[in-house]
Amino acid sequence: MNEINLILVGFMGTGKSTIGRLAADRLGYAYRDSDQEVERATGMTIPEIFAEKGEDFFRDKETAVLHKLLRNNRQVISTGGGSVLREENRRLMLEHGVVAELIASKETIIRRVSKDRNRPLLAGDVRERVAALLTQRAGAYAFAHHHLETDGYAPEDVVELLLSRLPIGQSSGGETDRP
């Protein structure tokens, strides 16, 4: 992978942060979480941003953070689940790295995020909100070079499969990989 970034995309709760940290350690790369970088840049938590400034403001900051992060190389970047909603973000990711989608079932996602109060898009009935967002985002992650399922697999196994595919970028999509 030498001088390239590994960018993880996927719905919330699919394991991007966990897999990202482990992959960065294995590669000797810096680890970056775009949501944490948005919080750092704004001095606000994501729930505060959504409550006080709205989702459009958050998405603008998310795009600005991606521009800044992707000036550098040798990073593993975990993106927010909705970062792929903007064409500009998808283009940036493809231009500056290898993109891998992490996938989990609706039930796994609900189990992983149901107690997390740091997710403003899940306000209300978590099960209902996850189902609605999954429907809205169907196909949004298809641009990724690789697609890896995380359901039922140890994070280390997912990382091992992901790293075995490097250098990624020689294919433009395809089959979903399973550890």
Largest sheet entry: 6 strands, parallel
How far from one another are the termini? 20 Å
Strand order of the largest sheet: 2-3-1-4-5-6
Order of helices and strands: EHEHHHEHEHHEHE
- From the coordinates shown, what is the CATH architecture? 3-Layer(aba) Sandwich
Shape designation: globular
Q: Which superfamily, in CATH terms, is the homologous superfamily?
A: P-loop containing nucleotide triphosphate hydrolases
Number of strands: 6
CATH topology: Rossmann fold
Summary of the model, kept short:
It is built from 8 helices and 6 strands, in the order βαβαααβαβααβαβ.
Describe the structure.
With 179 residues, this protein is an alpha/beta fold. It has a single domain, classed as 3-Layer(aba) Sandwich (Rossmann fold). The chain is built from eight helices and six strands, in the order βαβαααβαβααβαβ. A six-stranded parallel β-sheet has the order 2-3-1-4-5-6, with helices on both faces. Strand 5 (146-149), helix 8 and strand 6 form a beta-alpha-beta unit. The two termini are 20 Å apart.
Entry keywords:
179 residues, alpha/beta, Rossmann fold, 8 helices, 6 strands
Helix and strand layout, with pairings?
Elements: E1 5-9, H1 16-27, E2 30-33, H2 34-42, H3 46-52, H4 55-69, E3 75-78, H5 87-96, E4 97-103, H6 106-113, H7 126-136, E5 146-149, H8 155-164, E6 176-177
Parallel strand pairs: 1-3, 1-4, 2-3, 4-5, 5-6
Helix pairs in contact: 1-8, 2-4, 6-7
